[in-house]
């Protein structure tokens, strides 16, 4: 609880697949994944209920294009959590304010920049009061100028104690807030270490090579 884990590694190493197994979006063949004490792979586990407690932010935002920003934030609150419309609206507006987008509540996703859409996606995930948040390369589809506005929100979340698992190439973010770093290559976890140890003394040649290329 309250831990921030960053998953990094070259493209095609299995990072996105790994993060999607945490809330049952990808099946896994062996081992066990526990979320808040619940086993994801157990057939008795209600995956819909589990997913409602684990926020997920995707690379391409995945907002509903035909719904307004407000509707994007309230739909799951009402349909999944059974909140009243007024309560859901109030919660949504508070979170939009938090990510600096309250003035855009009436707009549709297509009217916002990529960075703004991703901040809305984070607010939408937070509206469900998740016990943990999963971020799957949340900045890789953004223009370079928009990356920091999303990372700033994520840094703030981490500093407030949100449990987070983040697939990213943003090593500055990892250095700032990660507790642990998982390094993957060719579908396997090559290293799982404390942040300081990973950056100062990576154990595998593959991780050393990766860091040498990515850290300028």
């Amino acid at each position: 609880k309250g831990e921030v884990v960053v998953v990094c590694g070259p493209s095609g190493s299995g990072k996105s697949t790994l993060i999607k197994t945490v809330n049952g979006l990808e099946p896994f063949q062996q081992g066990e994944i526990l979320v808040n004490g619940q086993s994801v792979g157990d057939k008795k586990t209600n995956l819909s209920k589990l997913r409602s407690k684990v926020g997920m932010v995707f690379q391409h935002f995945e907002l509903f294009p035909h719904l307004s920003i407000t509707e994007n934030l309230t739909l799951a609150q009402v349909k999944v959590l059974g909140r009243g419309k007024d309560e859901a609206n109030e919660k949504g507006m508070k979170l939009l304010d938090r990510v600096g987008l309250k003035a855009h509540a009436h707009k549709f996703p297509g009217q916002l920049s990529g960075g703004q859409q991703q901040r809305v996606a984070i607010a939408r995930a937070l509206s469900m009061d998740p016990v943990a948040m999963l971020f799957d390369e949340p900045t890789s589809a953004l223009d370079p100028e928009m990356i920091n506005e999303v990372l700033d929100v994520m840094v703030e979340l981490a500093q407030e104690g949100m449990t987070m698992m983040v697939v990213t190439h943003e090593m500055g973010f990892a250095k700032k807030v990660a507790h642990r770093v998982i390094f993957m290559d060719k579908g396997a976890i090559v290293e799982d270490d404390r942040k300081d140890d990973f950056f100062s003394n990576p154990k595998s040649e593959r991780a050393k090579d990766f860091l040498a290329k990515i850290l300028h």
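The chain is about 40% helix and 15% strand. The first strand starts at residue 4 and ends at 8.
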